[in-house]
Amino acid sequence: MINSLVKPEESEFHMKRFWEHSVGTAIIADKLVTDRLVRLGKPLEFNDYWIGALLHDVGKLVLGFFFWDWMLRILTHRAEKNCSFRQAEVDLIASHQRVGQLMLLNSDMGENAVNAVGNHHELSDPDDLLRLLHVADNLAKSVGLGTLPGEEAEFDADVLKQMGLSSDRVVRLSADLQKEMVQEIRSVVASCL
User: Structural domain boundaries of the chain?
Assistant: First the structure.
């Protein structure tokens, strides 16, 4: 899948950064589920959490490939206002999660995964899948997988509590992931690009 996408020449979208974060989020989500590192109300379908985590930022890919002018506005606003990528999107009304959700609505992807992709930054009444994507996404950020300089993880305290995670546990998880998985994830992505 990584090699099937060829970026338009006029786009400055960073494929390596995108795939490091996406693959990292999926692998982290799988580790959280299979090692039972988070509390889930019911078992999650592998396809839902794997594909949801892998494609959670597909809207960024669409913006970076086909609407580079919008992506450039977001990045410029982020730099000028010294804010997060997410805040720049909110300020400019250009949400990558909504773009991704709209694109995936016409796929064979399950409704739960499509919903999780479309809401992974907005956590009103989250289900287990959305909470898992939120935690995996932010753990990937916390270990520097595909993040912009200065981009920090933003864990929701209520989500952490519902998943049975304390702030201290998140710090230990990040350290373990950094030690055990980050280099392997980067190597996998590098070998595919």
Answer: 12-192
